[in-house]
Here is the input.
Amino acid sequence: MTFLAGFVALFAVLGAIPVIIHLLNKRQFRIVVWAAMEFLLTTMEKNSRRLQMQDLILMLLRVAAIVFLALTLARPTIAPGHFNLLGSSGETAAVIILDNSLSMGVANGNEMRFDAAKRRVKEIVDELPKGSAAALILMSDIAVDEIGEPSHQLDTVKETAQHAPLSDGGTDCFESLAKAWKIAKNATSSSREIYLITDMQAGAWPAADNATWAKLVDEIRSSKPAVKLFISDVGGGSSDNVQVERLQAEDELVTTESTIAFIATLHNYGPVPARNVTVDLLVGDTAGGEPRKVAGTVIDSLESVQQVRLETRFPTGGDQRVEVRASIDHLPADNRRCLSVNVIDRVRVLLIDGEPSATDSAFGNETDFLKAALSLKDEDNEAHPSLIETEVTTLSGLGDKTLREYQEIILANVGELPPNLIEGLKTFVRAEGKGLMIFLGGNVKAELYNDLLFQQAGLLPGKLALQFAEAPDDGSGKDAGIGFATDELVHPIVNFFADKENRPYLAKPRFRRWFPIEVPAEKDLGASAAGDHVSVVARFTNGQPAIVERTVGRGSVVLFASTADKEWSDFPLTPAFLMVVRRATQHATLGRMPSKTVQVHEPIASYLGVKEAGVQVSVRDPRGGTRQLSALLSATNDLAKVEFADTHFAGFYRLEKAGDGAHPTWFAANPPRQESNLDSYDEKTLRARYPNLPFQWVGQRADLGSVVSEKRVGKEIWFILLALVTACLIAESILALRWSPKGT
Here is the structure.
């Protein structure tokens, strides 16, 4: 038994007052020999035992009333499980938070911090009073309630903790404490306890002035009955650590055509330089074989942050796994960083010619200039193919083509728009994230384009005027037409010309005819185009749009206001045509593909065509676990999506469609960079930072049992003692009245 107001219990000594009064009154009697009283004394001796017993009972009731009143004011408690007469209301509901973040993988001697934390969980459960229950939360930068409600199956709690995995996530004490508080405050037990077992990493705690954190602290502090918070530190050891902080390709477009450089950033968090740090670049094939070392270097002295440049070539295209590994230290999990790279073997472009030539004359077809600009040959090595591979067809030849085999489709002065082509282009651009380029011309029916491509398909970047425009003839015969404006060249397709030396190339072409384009506000794109964005790439000197881009879903559509041949302009005859078309192709090819490299606990998503909704996709995590998912229709019903959110581990994730094991999709997940900073808080720092947070500190070498016993208080029983006070006073009054002499 313990007292919440122990000093008040001292007033129980006042229970001696009735005894003292009784003894004092007894000493006041004086024996006087009186013959006349002998008869009365003889009579009273018969009832003396009864009278003495009555006086004793009344005195004891008065003493008990005073003692019970003093104890009531002292608010005594019975430790949970120590007073079975109170029933199960004396049990403890414990919520245990086990830190399984990446930093818990630090090896202190022969033992990891995570192993010490698991041992602490067992100690906590063993210290719980009989009849108690416990819940278990795994803490990283997300809070996972492994056992979401207090369970009386304590052996199961211990077993679950022992089999808990060490994740590669960061640490967020606030989120886990908030979830633990929610569980604890809903528990019906009279005693509620929260145990936070962590390495006390400084970056895991919220800002001291965080309003949401302050609200949580106030709730815990003012809880009735009080919720006890125990913080167990299992950290310790050196905070020295070397981390591979970042890995990225030097170029945005990675191809098999040239050597690719990767930049690895290493960070030394220690106070002294790290010596002879090896850095290796490894590459894995698309099938999933073991990564092989392709480059490496040694950093003689790593003082703080340093970048390393490593090069390699990719013999084949597709998703490639790239990894950098550094020398192993006492936290191996952050000595590597992964990257999933989409290597382009060939950019296959399908040119749909809307005005093929009836003769074999050079550059007589609508697409001849496009083909020449895109399929440049290496004059020094004719055997080396061009990165961009073009293929020309017409509307009548589309039946033999599979659009998904290409990275870009170019419509050149195409007059008719068959329904199957429209549907194919929607999937090609919006779902598959590929590029569509449109050149206009005399065959284009503006009303048809506006209806099918803009209004219905949501692909066209803007509405076309019903009639093309013509530049006025100034009569000089020189430089007839309008040109490109050379200011505000910020779009990636034309920002090359923003340089003063390159600007004349863009200013040279002259346009005699073009279609005016009305660029809509994004709110006018329609509900099915949520997330689409329209931007003017370049304007004519008269201010009208010359090139307009629309991001559509995950892909991109680039619209040119004029033709791809020399019928309406001399643009195809100038060097600017080659530069603009190639840059537009590379830009559209990249599309808006979501990054295949994410942070641990961020979801990964793969997109499929709408016809593949319901397809089964297998996901394999870096530790060999597998999961089956179904491709689900998006909210706009224009594509299918596979999303996997349980990225708890760093490394490579393999997504594989049923029956398509030869072409898996690879994703990479990396731990948060700040998790590698092992600076930590001690008890003094934590109390100074959060003075209102009520907690009991359990040090690394502290005896958990004694710390908990000192803090643990059970069910208050003052109401029982108050009832006893009342009973004693009532009984004393009734008995005193009953036993008082009659007639007085």
About this structure: The first strand starts at residue 2 and ends at 3. The longest helix spans residues 48-73. The radius of gyration is 41 Å.
